[in-house]
Design brief:
The chain is an alpha+beta fold. It is built from eleven helices and 14 strands. The protein has an eight-stranded mixed sheet with strand order 1-4-5-6-7-8-9-10, with helices on one face. Strands 11-2-3-12-13-14 form a six-stranded antiparallel sheet, with helices on one face. Helix 3 packs parallel to helix 6 and helix 8 runs antiparallel to helix 9. The protein is globular.
């Protein structure tokens, strides 16, 4: 008899509660509930192709992920803060969206309409870190092999999105158009910003958080990362946009460009300045500690990865990302971009995800 996975065991335990919750969330639509009951235990990510036009992209996103969007809205966005705080935060979110490129509001509005979710909730869900709510912990590893291949890797560590986020790890494919490069970005239903993103020229970015925002954001960092990937065909242009990012939260962004073999990490410190960390011997790592002014080897993750060099295959990278010294218990997915092979390797869902199966997919058609 085939051994059950951690995800399947967890689903068996939680399914009665979740299925009842889904039944009421979906207004008694038993057929949709049953379809979810079949899909979720498989542990596969949701992969959706959007449109280059923001409004069309929002409509596709909202219609195809309606169930998950509504569930995350109810369980996480609305219930993670008290009602007074929720009203205050949604007002801040509306104000922030009103001050940036209207394309983001068009996408969020279309998404909300098609999913029947609240627009305020969708706006808040895309900028809640930027306005000072919650703190995350992630791990990044960027390396260039002796043969010149770039591996760009990120463990996304979060709080579980009220215990259901791991079931909806989502890959969004966005074709080129309107002056934007084709991209593949990673997030969750309702997210129009990216936690990880790569474009058709091999420019990739991943996000770690350094600390709490002072609520002075001029541009949500998740959406800025997606914008950089859409606009920048090379390392230098992406670096310039990162170094000149609008005022906002402390962050750590890993940047790589597979075609040129360039990698680096950028940190916005608490004083608002952005600094660059260069790799050493083709390797750079990042956890959630500020490394500015420290030796590149002065973090535990770097010590683990450097001792295992050379890292020349995806399996070498996986071993680092699932190492007990590196891995966090809240790891919701782990992704490895291998642009030269036109592949990404994704371990979704089983928490901590990097200990589970990495599935391999094509990056660009």
């Amino acid at each position: 008899m085939k051994k059950l996975t951690k995800r399947q065991i967890r689903w068996i335990i939680l399914s009665p509660f979740l299925l009842v919750l889904l039944f009421f969330t979906l207004n008694g639509d038993l057929w949709r509930v049953l379809k979810i009951a079949v899909r979720v235990p498989q542990g596969k990510p949701v992969i959706i192709t959007l449109d280059s036009d923001p409004a069309k992209a929002g409509r596709i996103h909202g219609s195809q992920l309606r169930i998950a969007i509504k569930l995350l809205e109810k369980l996480y966005i609305q219930n993670s803060v008290g009602q007074d705080s929720y009203e205050k935060l949604t007002a801040q979110a509306r104000e922030l969206f009103a001050s940036i490129d209207p394309r983001w509001t068009r996408e969020a509005t279309a998404l909300a309409e098609k999913s029947s979710a609240g627009l305020d909730a969708m706006m808040l869900g895309n900028c809640f870190l930027d306005i000072g709510h919650y703190r995350n912990g992630c791990r990044q590893l960027l390396t260039v092999t002796p043969g010149g291949k770039v591996f760009h890797t990120h463990n996304l560590d979060w709080d579980g999105l009220a215990g259901v986020g791991q079931y909806w790890v989502t890959v969004f494919r966005v074709p080129a158009g309107e002056g934007r490069l084709a991209t593949v970005y990673f997030g969750f239903p309702g997210m129009i910003g990216a936690l990880d993103v790569i474009n058709s020229e091999g420019v990739a970015l991943s996000f770690n958080q350094h600390g709490f925002s002072r609520q002075e954001s001029k541009m949500p960092v998740f959406m800025k990362m997606r914008e950089i990937a859409e606009k920048c065909p090379d390392f230098k242009s992406a670096e310039t946009m990162i170094m000149n990012m609008e005022q906002g939260m402390p962050f750590c962004i890993g940047l790589s460009h597979a075609k040129s073999g360039q990698i680096a990490v950028y940190e916005r410190n608490r004083d608002g300045t952005v600094s660059k960390r260069e790799p050493l011997d083709g390797l750079i790592t990042a956890d959630n500690t500020i490394q500015t002014g420290k030796l590149i080897t002065d973090n535990t993750m770097d010590k683990v990865a450097r001792a295992a060099m050379p890292l020349t295959t995806p399996d070498d990278i996986k071993a680092i990302m699932r190492s007990k010294t590196v891995l966090l218990g809240s790891n919701m997915y782990s992704v490895i971009f291998d642009f030269q092979a036109n592949k990404f390797h994704l371990a979704p869902g089983d928490i901590p995800a990097a200990t589970g199966q990495y599935r391999t997919y094509r990056l660009f058609e």
